[in-house]
Specification:
By secondary structure, the chain is an alpha+beta fold.
């Protein structure tokens, strides 16, 4: 016997009464406006202040504008209700958005690293321009601004349970890290070591590539129906086994679907129960699990007659 109720419906309001659409728009607006202003300032400071590291940092910030837009688009599309062509919903649009963000970071990182290495291997360090104070100020402003944007986006990404916006948050933090590298490189160059500015670009590249790898790895795992892990399945099994009328849990499989989870469950109940009573038990467990574990979009339950 198997119970397979309809999937949990999605709407603009979460179960906690949070207006998700308003949060999505607010995060996106802060990310896009903030990054455009910051990119313009850093590009000006990099050019006026003779700092290749700051110009690289400005390019990284500009990539955040596209990253935030992609995250916004991916999250909005993932909220679409299931339809005939997509009966399981559209949550994997978030995975697609995260993949795009990871690729953007990857390309940005390689580009910044290439520019820095070319200057390092070119030699003639004495001909390199010495950055001025405005580049140093821009690095400090960038660190403070991007770290604030990281915590802001991360906070709401957790509320939305959104991998795309969490990836965008890490994009902000990678920019803060790159600005720290810029700060060190610019300061070193101003102290008489001009090559430090180019070395900073390479360090920035490494930070960006690491974040890119983490984002791509997470997105691919969620696209491949990866399980939620042994600890998660043990906790869920213990919760279900403690439910009234459950004799034993025979099997539990989990799989990630975007930012949601699907569960397949087999459990034993008294084999002498009438069909209606056994079905009512399955329905009760179904509703309890989905109410207690909010990330679970749907659980399919198969009942086996107890052999005890």
């Amino acid at each position: 016997m198997t119970t397979n109720k309809g999937h949990r419906t999605e709407s603009g309001l979460s179960k906690a009464g949070i207006n998700e659409n308003a949060i999505i728009q607010r995060i996106s607006l802060v990310g896009i406006v903030g990054n455009v202003a910051l990119s313009a300032f850093k590009l000006f400071a990099g050019i006026a202040g003779n700092s290749g590291a700051m110009v690289s940092d400005a390019v990284h910030s500009l990539s955040d504008v596209f990253a935030t837009f992609i995250a916004f688009l991916g999250v909005r599309l993932s909220k679409k209700a299931a339809d005939r062509e997509h009966p399981y919903g559209h949550e994997r649009f978030e995975c697609v958005a995260s993949l795009l963000l990871g690729v953007i970071l990857l390309i940005t990182g390689f580009g910044i690293g290439k520019a820095g290495l070319e200057k390092i291997f070119a030699g003639s360090y004495e001909t390199l321009a010495i950055p001025s104070v405005i580049a140093l100020v821009a690095a400090i402003v960038s660190i403070v601004s991007k770290e604030a944007m990281y915590w802001y986006t991360r906070h709401y990404a957790k509320i939305l349970n959104s991998p795309a916006f969490m990836a965008d948050a890490w994009h902000h933090r990678s920019d803060a890290f790159s600005s720290i590298g810029s700060l060190i490189g610019i300061a070193g160059a101003m102290l008489g070591f001009p090559i430090m500015d180019s070395i900073a670009s390479v360090v920035i590249c490494l930070f960006i590539l690491k974040v890119s790898y983490d984002i791509l790895k997470d997105a691919i795992a969620k696209m491949l129906d990866t399980s939620c892990g042994e600890d998660y399945e043990k906790a869920l099994t213990a919760y279900i086994a403690a439910q009234k009328d459950v004799v034993r849990v025979d099997m539990l499989h989990s799989r990630m679907f975007g930012n949601k989870t699907y569960i397949e469950l087999e459990l034993q109940v008294d084999g002498d129960l009438p069909l209606r009573e056994a079905h009512a038990i399955a329905e009760r467990i179904h509703d309890n699990v989905e109410a207690h574990f909010l990330e679970i979009k749907h659980i399919t339950i198969h009942l086996n007659p107890s052999t005890l």
